[in-house]
Each structure stands twice: as C-alpha cells, then as structure tokens.
Amino acid sequence: MSIQEQIRDQLNGSSIVLYIKGTPQMPQCGFSAKAVQLLSACGAHFASYNILENPDLRQGLKEFSNWPTFPQLYIRGELVGGCDIMVELNQKGELKKLVDQAQS
Amino acid sequence: MMRPEDIQTMIEQGLPGAEVRVAGDGHHFEAVVTAADFAGKGTLQRHQMVYRTLGGKMGNEIHALSLKTLAPGE
Questions:
Q1: What is the pTM of this model?
Q2: At what angle do helices B4-14 and B43-53 cross, to 10 degrees?
Q3: B43–A contact, CB cutoff 8 A
Q4: How many CB atoms lie within 10 A of CB B42?
Q5: Would you say residue B27 has pLDDT above 90?
Q6: What is the mean pLDDT of residues B31-48?
Q7: Ranges of each domain in chain A
Q8: ∠ CA(A66), CA(B23), CA(B37), 5° rounding?
Q9: A3-103, which class in CATH?
C-alpha cells in the first residue's frame, strides 16, 4: 500500500485526525503539545499519529497536504491547518464548532 | 543558520509586491505578510502561499514560522 493510500485510510478512519511529533501523552514539540491541548479542551476524540516514528509518513504528508510542518489537523479528511491556525480558530470559538460538527 | 532577512527576501521574491516583516531567533520565526494576492483567500491558503515561497526550507532550516497574513486594508 502506498503512503498516499495509507494516509487516505487514516483520514477515512476517523473524523478528526492529528499528525504530531510524539504522542498526545508525550508530545516531542511545543506546537504539537499545544495542538493536543486545544483539541482536548474542545472535547475532541481524535486519532493521532506520531510522524517521528514514520519518516515516510512525514514526507508523504508534506506532499499530500502541501503543508511542510507539523502538527497537521484534519477534520473529515480536510486539512484545517497547523498550530497557528488552530490557535486562531480557537480564539474565535470556531475550533469547538468544527469539532462538534465532526463528532455529531 | 537562517536569518530573518533571508526569509524576508524569499517571501518578497515569491510574492511580488508583498510587504513583509520578519523576526526570529534562528529557528523560530514570526512574519507579518501583507499582500494583495491574499484578498478573498482563507487563512490556510494564505499560509500555503507563503510556505511555497520558502521551498524546502520550511520544516528543515526553519523549524517554525508563525504567520500573520493580511490583505491590504485588513
């Protein structure tokens, strides 16, 4: 299975998917930790994947999403953005709306 | 190590006519980019446009670049 197919399966498998450096319990980067904290505060149930353990996934995602950094948040298979955009959405109360819609 | 001026030049070359201000410590940077090309585009698209001007540097030499992307008048 190609990395692009793997990514598609992962995105189809959960309505909210977060690709980070590390794990939610042990994030390896401040931005990834912030993304986990924001999602948890919104009551999101999300699948998370550690790109540090899978260099092919890391490179494949950059091409898949045309987004060069991590974390990367996907809701219903669509790239929402990285940490910056999550913070911005959260400040406007839009992150919670997106999470609620995805989990409805 | 990347300097703010290096990033500023790359963004200016990639987004002709944009007004660019960059600050940073060599790994983490912040940039404010005002460009007419952003008009009518969402935040995600705007950030992708800026990242595209930096080629392979994003996520490598540049660990993090926090962006504020504005269209003129915003």
A1: 0.90
A2: 110
A3: yes
A4: 12
A5: no
A6: 96
A7: 3-103
A8: 45
A9: alpha beta
